[in-house]
Amino acid sequence: IQPFTDWFQNKHILDCDIIFNIILSLTLQLKNLINDKVCFYKYDINNMLVIDNNTFIYVSLSDLLNINNEQNVIISTPFLKNNTNLLSPELLLIDNIPSSIHYKSIYWSLGMLIIYCMCNTHMNDNNINNNLLHLSAIKTQHEIHKLLNQELYFIKETKLFYFLERCMTITANERKIVYL
Questions:
Q1: Rounded to an integer, what distance in angstroms lies between the CA atom of residue 113 and that of residue 77?
Q2: Which of 2-16, 58-72, 154-168 has the lowest mean pLDDT?
Q3: Secondary structure tally for the chain: helices H, strands E
Q4: Does the pLDDT of residue 127 top 50, yes or no?
């Protein structure tokens, strides 16, 4: 078992199998949590662990919130917006506490985590692609689709590309974590 940040620092290329394992591990964890009416509202790579180089888990209990009857989580404690590249657009808009957001806000964070991993290994020699990591500032689905097509050309028309598109719709309650 090791921190994700240490493990990731030693990787120069994340192949499709590793990316798939990250998706599989985190979506299974989310599915189990959501079945129990709780969910993380954001991801932070500093709170992830890697087990045996192929299982990934998120371990921040402070990011785990109850899902209410309206399918929302209530943000009632302050959080730092310094890790904006993994925060959903609705989290970035919060300016007072308490606030509620749809529990599927975490799907955006998952999509950004996958993009973060790909950008740090496949593009620009460990220099994060700024266009992609500022997707949260984009206001229309058309703009998101266009940017994903341009910047993720190396996975265009793949299951991974469409998975990311489903995670990253503008409207939180329309997001899905489906890998077909």
A1: 23
A2: 2-16
A3: 7, 7
A4: no
CA–CA distance, 150 with 28 (Å, rounded to integer)? 30
d(C-alpha 148, C-alpha 143), whole Å: 9
**pLDDT tens digits, 30-57:** 999 999 999 999 998 899 999 998 899 9
Question: Phi/psi class of residue 55: alpha, beta or left (left: φ > 0; alpha: ψ in -120 to 50)?
Answer: beta
| CA gap 59, 99 in Å, rounded | 23
**C-alpha gyration radius of the chain:** 15
Share of the chain above pLDDT 70, in %: 87
Contact 176, 166 (CB under 8 A): yes
Peptide bond into 3 cis (omega under 30): no
| Cβ proximity of 27 and 177 under 8 Å | yes
The pLDDT score that the predictor gives to residue 123 is 39
16-35 helix and 105-122 helix, angle to the nearest 10 degrees:
160
Separation CA 108–CA 88 (nearest Å): 6
Q: What is the pLDDT of residue 9?
A: 84
Beta strands in the chain (DSSP E): 2-3, 38-40, 48-51, 55-58, 64-66, 72-75, 99-102
